[in-house]
Write a structure and sequence with these properties.
With about 400 residues, the chain is α+β, with helices and mostly antiparallel strands. It is about 60% helix and about 5% strand. It has a four-stranded antiparallel beta sheet. A hairpin with a 4-residue loop joins β2 and β3. The termini are far apart.
């Protein structure tokens, strides 16, 4: 006992005491949506010893695979566990790095497995949502070239020739047409009912983005704004890069706080046209901030992740109380938003910033106004309304 305490300290008597994060245990023990995860063959406790079995060596020896059939069953369980683990890490624990590792492991251990199209699509979603476009393009290319007729290839924009459409696809088309007819006639409740019915009939649904977008449109026609926004956001998150996701984002931009934005922009000194060249800026207190060191780290970050964009980094004082670090030559507002988000996702870079730093992006025209005014609060009001970050 004394040896234990020297190594581990005084601890409460509890299960899984060495486990770093018990959230994972709670997630694994709970229920959840299994629509996009592998169904694990062995349920919880299926191989757990009961009573005297706990002390019986033969019980444990019997669990060891003994022939090719046993090994095949074991491998299937391992595969399904890695696929399910990837989903849990990303959707429940919000850990894209560990999710990527789990998905990659399932494919490296079992190349060409039955879940590979779904796994590639899951990786594509992660990379798109994490603004890793190059990796997203790699897995998209593999998905389209290796599984061109799969549902998941269709979801990333793969074309489907008429002769390649299977029974599921043809049924989905027919059901979707029936739903859309109801929508066009103004029968929005009937359309929603038809969509729900169609989803139940389709074991696999290659047109799910279309059904979900139509659901959002029906809610909009019924003046159910919050439900419409929720459905649109779901399309963007679940089907990144698809035509439906682009349209959903356009609709959200149109309805999301449009009136408030107009009111702010009408009173602001800043230019509402933010489509031109941009710069990224970090504002920090003048005292106690080593911005030269930060500048070098940002330059290394740009070289590693934005080497083809010809970005420039410089720092200077804004006034007696504040200094600024700027990254210039961002092509437009879209490039600036992507840069800002990728910057924030780099934990090492963010930890190097001085306390009380503020990160913003500005068009070149608005930077001139900001530099003359030097009023951060005024710009932040405009910035929040326009960029919605």
């Amino acid at each position: 006992m004394s040896t234990f305490k020297r190594r581990w300290g005084s601890r409460e008597l509890e299960d899984n005491w060495r486990q770093k994060n018990k959230t994972a245990e709670m997630v694994a023990a709970g229920g959840g949506d299994n629509n996009d995860s592998a169904s694990v063959s062995a349920g919880p406790g299926e191989f757990s010893p009961v009573g005297k079995e706990k002390y019986d060596v033969n019980f444990y020896l019997n669990q060891i695979p003994k022939d090719s059939a046993d090994i095949a069953v074991s491998n299937q369980m391992i595969l399904e566990a890695y696929v399910a683990l990837g989903k849990i890490y990303y959707e429940k624990l919000n850990d894209p790095n560990e999710a990527t590792k789990a998905y990659d492991k399932s494919m490296s251990l079992f190349p060409g497995n039955e879940f590979e199209p779904r796994t590639l699509y899951s990786l594509y979603r992660i990379y798109i949502n994490e603004f890793q476009e190059e990796q997203a393009e790699v897995v998209k290319t593999k998905l389209l070239s290796t599984y061109p007729k799969s549902v998941y290839a269709i979801l990333v924009g793969g074309a489907v020739e008429q002769e390649d459409k299977d029974e599921d696809y043809l049924l989905a088309e027919e059901l979707y047409r029936n739903c859309y007819v109801q929508y066009e006639k103004g029968n929005y409740r009937s359309a929603l009912s038809a969509i729900t019915s169609a989803k139940k009939k389709l074991k696999t649904n290659p047109l799910l983005p279309k059904f979900n977008l139509l659901t959002a449109l029906c809610h909009g026609k019924q003046q159910k704004k919050s439900q419409m926004e929720k459905e649109l956001q779901g399309v963007i998150t679940d089907f990144p890069g698809s035509q439906e996701a682009v349209l959903a984002q356009t609709l959200l931009d149109q309805i999301g706080g449009a009136d408030a934005t107009k009111a702010i922009m009408s009173k602001s000194k800043y230019k509402s046209d933010v489509k031109g060249k941009h710069r990224f800026m970090v504002l920090s207190p003048a005292v106690g901030s080593n911005m030269n060191s930060v500048r070098n780290q940002v330059a290394d970050f740009n070289k590693k992740f934005h080497k083809f964009e010809k970005l420039q980094v410089k720092n200077s004082f804004l006034d007696a109380k504040n200094q600024i670090l700027m990254v210039t030559n961002l092509a437009d507002d879209i490039a600036a938003v992507k840069y800002l988000k990728s910057f924030k996702q780099d934990e090492k870079l963010m930890s190097s910033l001085p306390a009380q730093s503020t990160l913003i992006i500005l068009s070149e025209e608005n930077f001139k106004i900001f530099y003359a005014e030097k009023n951060l609060q005024d710009y932040l009001e405009f910035y929040t309304a326009v960029y919605k970050l």
